[in-house]
């Protein structure tokens, strides 16, 4: 995500400017990377794909100068703590848990979510220690009664997290060093600038509000509000003719759309939890992080107006990675610091 000053709102993924870029790409032919991508044209089935040691990686740029700024990264076992804010049904939770549990899974079919995470693991701190390979689902918290209402600001999000870690009944454990707190809002919750500028963001809590400095991310379910913006390509904006959505692999447009945003934020939380570690750019208030560099790229050939080559299930759903227990997901690529390219496990020669 691209951060902002503490008093301002950090933005990520889908912005108004991204929409305008897409319009230009479709109707004027402008090239270049954007948060959006045109639906893939010739969808390739799983049986047609042949994976190997690909030498072609998309999204490269000699102008990208991703640097380490000496801040901490998450080199010890990472524990994810979801906070389910609002109304969540069991199937929706199972989809998201299925993705989170797939990050460190070793039994998934290639190309897998765990192989996607292996690119994130390439990042090191000043001692040479890598991002942890162990990402586990920890204690969860339900906030089904909207403790802070159905309209949240950036600061009230921190108050929701405070309520979760200080609750008198089953509080979330406080783990500043290796805990990541995921505030997931249901489709009837509005968050400041949601659907207008952001689909999700990450930052850290302020001790003056929460009592601790905890890395956290917020991601919203856009299924009812703006699926064409935040659940693309499973939904498309109605004001652009000719675009056709693809089928969501888990049958829930809003939640399937959340998966890539959640992945984006977790990758950046691991490599830049306090906004002083891995990023490009000279201004830490507006860093370009490892997932920002690859927004809209899901496969080989991705970039500009094209998502890249993805796969189809037998029933026509689109995905690019396998998870545990047969689940499938569509997850954007991240920046590979060794190759200096965007890369994903479904890369093809």
Please render the helix and strand layout as text:
Layout: H1 16-27, E1 66-68, E2 78-85, H2 90-102, H3 113-120, E3 135-137, E4 141-143, E5 151-152, H4 154-166, E6 179-185, E7 190-191, E8 200-204, H5 207-210, E9 215-220, H6 227-230, H7 253-271, E10 278-280, E11 311-312, E12 318-319, E13 321-322, E14 328-329, E15 334-336, E16 341-343
Parallel strand pairs: 2-3, 2-4, 2-6, 5-7, 6-9
Antiparallel strand pairs: 1-10, 8-9, 11-12, 13-14, 15-16
Helix pairs in contact: 2-7
Count of separate DSSP helical elements: 7
Mean pLDDT: 85
Strand content: 15-25%
The total domain count is: 1
Largest sheet: 6 strands, mixed
- Measured on Cα atoms, how large is the radius of gyration? 19 Å
Give me the oligomer status. Answer: single chain
- Name the shape in a single word: globular
Q: Into which percent range does the helicity of residues fall?
A: 10-25%
Low-confidence stretches: 2-58
Tell me the span between the first and last alpha carbons: 29 Å
